[in-house]
Amino acid sequence: MSIRDGGFIDELRSTENSRIGLYALLLAGIAFYLFPVETAVMTMFKTESAFARTLPFAPPGTDGFTLDALTTAWNTLRPGLINSLLMAIPATIVSALLGSMTAYGLTTISWRGQVGVVVLIIAGIFIPYQAVLVPLAQFWFQVLPGLLNGFVNTVFGFITGGNWQYPSRNGYVQLLQLSITHAAYGIPICTLLFRSYYQSISDEMIEAARLDGASAFSIYRNIILPLSLPMFAVTLIYQFTQVYNDLLFALVLVNEPASQVATQRLAALTGGVVQSFNTTMAGAIVAALPTLLVYIMFGEQFAKGVAGE
Amino acid sequence: MREILSRLLATGGRLRSAVSRDESDGDQLATDGGATVKTTRRDSLRNSLPVEWELIESAPFWLPPVLFAGFFVYGAIAWNFLLSLTDYNGLGGAQYESFDLSMYSRLLNDGAFWQAAQNTVVLLVVFTVLCLALGLLVAILIDQQIRFENTFRTIYLLPMSLSFVVTATMWAWVYNARNGVLNQFLRLFNLEGAIVGLLRPTGVNAEVIQWLSWNTTALAAVIFALIWQFSGYAMVVFLAGLRAIPTEHYEAARVDGASTVRLYARVIIPQLRASAVSASVVLMVFALKAFDFIYALRGSQPGANMDILATMMYRVAFDSLQWAYGSAVAIVLFALALLVIGPYLYSEYQRGEL
Fold this sequence. Notes:
The complex is a heterodimer of chains A (309) and B (354).
Chain A: H1 2-44, H2 48-53, H3 68-108, H4 114-125, H5 130-155, H6 157-160, H7 171-199, H8 203-211, H9 216-227, H10 229-245, H11 248-253, H12 262-270, H13 277-308
Chain B: H1 2-34, H2 37-47, H3 53-85, H4 102-108, H5 111-142, H6 149-157, H7 164-174, H8 181-188, H9 192-199, H10 218-243, H11 247-255, H12 260-268, H13 273-288, H14 291-298, H15 309-319, H16 323-350
Helix pairs in contact in B: 3-16, 4-16, 5-10, 5-13, 7-14, 10-13, 11-12, 13-16, 15-16
């Protein structure tokens, strides 16, 4: 009896020890995943001399504390933040709406051969964007302006006198072009997210509505769309972070300094000749702020979006 | 035994589908009986169509977005291939006059291309394997019915919500030779000298580790930072896979007296194959797209030991304005991506998962 008791206590103790080990590992994980962010936050409040003198992850002392780096970074990045939001929010909404419609047409309504279209869409998620960059630049800067110039000056020639020029160098036009581009490349992933959700909606309700003579549009409007609201949250949040975080398309499509987005401005700050790490860290935190806020508020939806991919 | 079971299941499924077909037929009869001529006329119209009615009915929903995305994705790729056959370079529009494979033969003789291709493949393989391993480990740790599970998971996934430009900026500071966290940490344990002796490339005189510029460490430094950013993704995928395994499997192994290590190695991890495959496809594609990270870290000329095909393509096309040559590099990158996703999509299609 006593032996068995001892065994039980030993077992309890060993599980307790392994629980402590488990939590120690999990806390080490937190240190691993947060230390670059933590050092960035600490460094952005330090003066030039302090960040060279102190340990990067230690908080600034009273003599080494300054808000100058943050102010500089904020002033450098603020126009970029506004441009990023102007560009990313419409692109996200358009992708999500079109993705939902596509998923509806390819999932809830079923027809032979739709799997071929689905394969093309899913493959579109995985395209390395380098494979479309040169044509994108060609399209937005050469072909489209050429076509529009010809069209406008032919049809409205009596007004323009043949002198109308597509405003390729206008900052807002470039942002709009970037936004449309992001909207197009966002459709595949949004479609996939909505599709897996629509596959889980039971057919019975839709079948019943169909037998009552409801049209495809009214089924979408009255049944599918209201049911999709939680999935819209997931898609909007995931897609917003993707569009906001992108650098490549902006590098290629936006060359007017006034309309550069936040990631472009941060890359310029980081790649600058003078590297003051307090300013670049402040820049990184400021540029990350919108996605960080979205992530802190809607982490659950972001995780779902990630898992859906 | 298993065979009988599966045959039984198959019969069950067939029975069920037969029953449901009967039901739906019955429903249709009922409505046909109830409705008037209108439905029959519409039905006859539908039957005379050369394609399925559902195809036409659904087209307004999927066709415009598919054409829109299709133009930008597949139209642009085809266009890119066409451009790679020309010798378009410099300012001004493209000329589509003569087409040949000269850009591809130029690739074969370009040392920079082979270096970038090698770095790309190394990055792809090492990053994906290590990311999966770390993600699996973390997922198993989180799956032990711990407290604050959501908090841990949220923190582990946080780097993935950040832009490559943001993380590159942070890691540039971590890897900084003089004051960066990593070297300070190594100095704390007096390890820096030993590592300098071990990793310093020949002909370099530095006494501190220059992680990002030494050819022995540059690519590894990038891979490590990318693992930091994306192992949270692998964790999420594996966690979903772990949660899908019935608890009986754990209990059965426990009753058999299997140790925790054996339980995971023999019973649990083999069941995570599907999660591992889908996670590794996505991770490989992330690795092919690592351009933003390297560009933010080192600009468009990251040096031979950090150059990948994505950065090379951007440099060749948008810095040197050799558009056709850049397009050819892009096609190679695209082919690499196809090598990864083609078999994956095909197997998903075979299993009826699409």
